[in-house]
């Protein structure tokens, strides 16, 4: 379980998604680039050319390496590409949230948390 | 359940019986408390799952509206602004803060969104045209992110509560199905051993008593027979009965 100090300093959101979702969320003001020298962005734009390893690396970086991210937003069709990672991710912090994208309507059946909800209630 | 069931390794004494009884009482109290805790948590858990379901649906709608407004921006600006925005993002305006909420001793974190003042990475975006649309789009997305943050805190609470409920239920079941039966078994065992000891003791006492009785009877009989024999002897030697002091023959005079 998360200790108290673990989530006190988590104050950013992170996004992995297609260009439109990332642009919109950045417009809302969630974008953050850590000061140089490392210049880490808290968002990743995924298109058809991005390979799965890069997505996985970004997901790992947002979930385990960086300690200042509280919520990871990920497009559902991107999440599908690393579905195994998402389904085995059980930590409370940061929270991983699947969001719909413009081209891919939201499918509650695929959401890992909603599936857990359904399983728990035997629906 | 037979006495040969699972029990703790104790010596069957009255003292350990007392200890076991106290333990059983403690286990029962703990069981009822944990059961109530688990029920309270489950109630909360169901409420949260219901809210998650609602929030997910709401998120779908909100995101749809948001992407529509982004499309408006693209149309108004007349080109893709994605690259420009990605490059000009520097510092987060929209941040979150974690609060804690206490539900039956479980600390549930809840995220809270807040806006930091005075930094605006996108001052130049839409300067040429479409500034109004950009502004509207930012507001729409800000609302969407707020909904997402709310959903995320629900989801975190869901994950943590799920974990805690599992642990509590495991404890309840362990007490109900392992500790209480085992303690009861031990008490039963101690009781039966103590009864056994009681019976042994009683039997031993009875045995001693009967032995004593037999011994007394034997002594009595011996004394009686001795007495009888003595009487018979006396009868034989002097059958004239006890000597009469007055009727005795004269004593010789005593001269000083």
Strand order, biggest sheet of chain A?
A: 2-1-3-4
Helical stretch tally of chain B: 3
The gyration radius over C-alpha positions of chain A equals 15 Å
How many beta-strand elements of chain B?
A: 2
Main beta sheet strand tally, sense and closure of chain B? 2 strands, antiparallel
Pfam families (chain B): ATP-synt_D (PF01813)
Family (chain B): Belongs to the V-ATPase D subunit family.
Biased composition (Basic and acidic residues) (chain B): 212-232
Keywords (chain B): Ion transport, Transport
Structural notes for this entry:
Chain A: It is a peripheral membrane protein. The complex is a heterodimer of chains A (123) and B (256). Chain A is α/β, with parallel strands linked by helices. Chain A has helices at 4-8, 19-28, 52-65, 76-81, 83-88, 112-121, and strands spanning 12-17, 43-45, 69-75, 95-99. Chain B is mainly α and 256 residues long. In chain B, β1 and β2 (106-115) form a beta hairpin. Chain B contains three helices and two strands. Chain B has a two-stranded antiparallel ribbon. Chain B has helices at residues 14-77, 82-88, 131-237, and strands at 94-103, 106-115. Chain B is rod-shaped. Classes of the chains: A alpha/beta (123), B mainly alpha (256). At the A-B interface, α1, α2, β3, β4 and α6 of A face α1, α2, β1, β2 and α3 of B.
